[in-house]
UniProtKB/TrEMBL annotation:
The species this protein was found in: Asanoa iriomotensis
Pfam families per record: MarR_2 (PF12802)
Protein name (Swiss-Prot/TrEMBL): MarR family transcriptional regulator
Source domain of life: Bacteria
Domain HTH marR-type: 15-147
Lineage per the UniProt record: Bacteria, Bacillati, Actinomycetota, Actinomycetes, Micromonosporales
Length: 169
């Protein structure tokens, strides 16, 4: 087996910066959401996905794609949300093989209360330190890396994209 070429100094610095960001950014977002709203970042993504969907209702499979989650992980979170009165689940009347998750008014109130602090933290941690050109570069870089990892599974930019199973690229 041929040995892979080592990273040069610039590549090593870039890689270490990326790894540090990948570890620290989710932790910082989780900390803010836990402190201010009692939610993990993943839980917030699930609620946000439902809040942006027509009728605040999505098939669980679509919501899993949007939240970049497995169905079992999503089911556990939605079960907790059901106990809190934030979400209801039921069969899809168009196709009973699917389960719909519907956000309640209480769930919408929860995500609406959490959103301003979360958006403020995202802006502070990511966007405030970047120029508009750097923001576009970051999006392009993210899209390219995701496409390399999973050519057919780019992160959906919208709920509609998640429903169609398409990404942003």
């Amino acid at each position: 087996m041929e040995e892979a070429p080592w990273l040069d100094d610039d590549e090593t610095k870039t890689w270490l910066a990326l790894v540090s960001m990948l570890i620290r950014l989710p932790a910082a977002l989780d900390a803010q959401l836990q402190r201010d709203a009692g939610l993990s970042h993943f839980e917030y993504q699930v609620l946000a996905g439902l809040s942006m969907s027509p009728g605040r209702t999505l098939r669980m499979s679509t919501l899993a794609r949007f939240a970049d989650s497995s169905l079992p992980r999503l089911s556990q979170v939605v079960a907790r949300f059901e106990k809190r009165g934030w979400v209801r689940r039921g069969p899809d009347p168009d196709d009973g093989r699917y389960t719909l998750a519907t956000m309640t008014d209480e769930g919408f109130a929860k995500v609406a209360a959490a959103a301003p602090g979360h958006v403020s933290e995202v802006r502070r941690l990511v966007f405030d330190s970047l120029t508009k050109a750097q923001q576009r570069q970051l999006q392009s870089i993210g899209d390219r890396v995701i496409h390399t990892i999973d050519p057919d599974g780019a992160c959906p930019a919208t709920i509609a994209d998640a429903a169609l199973g398409v990404g942003d690229s």
